[in-house]
């Protein structure tokens, strides 16, 4: 498949590039600075330097793609930010201009406390601790999610819990439109696998898929 990845220099983005290239996909990484990509990846994927916030700048990168994955996010989850909402708005506009398509967006399971969570997580940990601590990043993600949901694209939102840089376990759990019970962490490598699995599964279109280790 032909895949474009935004947020490609971040921890999750790099893992998506590695996994996708290893599976033989034709991968385009959209970055501000190509030098921030690991040298070995620059040799295995097509690299486009562009401003993700400018739809015209990224138009060619999303045109004719089988799927677009956005792993955009703030590097400081406690500071005010609009990076997710602004980038999602731009990506949607660029994809609309290119004729639509498949969009997979990385969000966070901490946004919602629902029946998939255990009682402590649902009524204490998330609303009283996590959502307050990360309120700026979560507010940004919620706005981005709303834009994606309102779009005419074939979208799927993927919500992982806390990400780790540990080696891949080679397996993950998932749930559609609810959180994963006891899903506290997932490795970025396993998240990358989940994103590519979701990307190729049309049954997830129009849904939120929560994943966890």
From TrEMBL:
<dbReference type="InterPro" id="IPR036291">
    <property type="entry name" value="NAD(P)-bd_dom_sf"/>
</dbReference>
<dbReference type="InterPro" id="IPR016040">
    <property type="entry name" value="NAD(P)-bd_dom"/>
</dbReference>
<dbReference type="InterPro" id="IPR051606">
    <property type="entry name" value="Polyketide_Oxido-like"/>
</dbReference>
<protein>
    <submittedName>
        <fullName>SDR family oxidoreductase</fullName>
    </submittedName>
</protein>
<dbReference type="Pfam" id="PF13460">
    <property type="entry name" value="NAD_binding_10"/>
</dbReference>
<feature type="domain" description="NAD(P)-binding">
    <location>
        <begin position="7"/>
        <end position="202"/>
    </location>
</feature>
